[in-house]
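Before our next group meeting I need something from you. Please put the record directly below this note.
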Amino acid sequence: MPELPEVEIVKRSLSKIANKAKIIDIKIKNKNLRYKIPKFFKKKLLNHNILRVSRRSKYIIFHFKNKFLLLHLGMTGKLLFFKKKYTTIFKTSFYHDLNILPKHNHIFFILSNNLTLVYNDVRRFGFFKIYENKKLNEISFLSKLGVEPLNKKINYKYFKKIIKNRKKNIKNILMDQTLICGLGNIYVSEALFLAKINPLRLSYSLKNREIKNIIKNIKLILKLSIAKGGSSIKDFKNTFGKNGKFQQYFNVYGRNNKNCSRTSCTGEIKKILISNRSSFYCSSCQK
């Protein structure tokens, strides 16, 4: 599933390309996504300008006058642009090398800037929701989300408060979207490696310097991933059809049974399940 950096990159691409464009037509080829596309979907968005595009956690938000279109990419959702008719999408330069099957192109947004935005989703776990005359914090999917990890509010004081008296391991704390939103397996694993913290470590046992180190490395790893275009494990591509490159910089994620990447460490990367999610860590240097 795309995490914060991947969704942020898609949001930035959309902001450059679709911002201020008017939706002049919508073609729905398959309405059976995670939540069924309603009959009024096209009518509600037709001839409306995209005023801006924003992100909250792993959600993309299209802002219109007096309404929002909320998008979650699910496991395999992609947003792709092309210039020609959708029947010739794979003949354009952006998509020449993409292994994207036309049968998974579900929704086509035809824009006034001569581009078409396509929603492609193999597993169809992604979804769109339209909200009218509501504030963002009133939307059910967003109302309980915690602080963004790159926000200045994520500091020692905040972190100390959320782990106080909690007998949870640090991995589950960081994955709790009501506390800190947008983090997932990849970036939690990588940040804890840089901080030299075992993912099973009970959060209340963390020392002050360890807390500060975790915060520093969460921000560092997210910024680095955004700079490198996100991580392409299986499915992620940005709206230009390009793979992210951050997976080339993984220290632990997906590297089980390999030697630790620290030259000063002789440990081995282990893979364990925490709350039914894969976690990767060095058995030697992460305490």
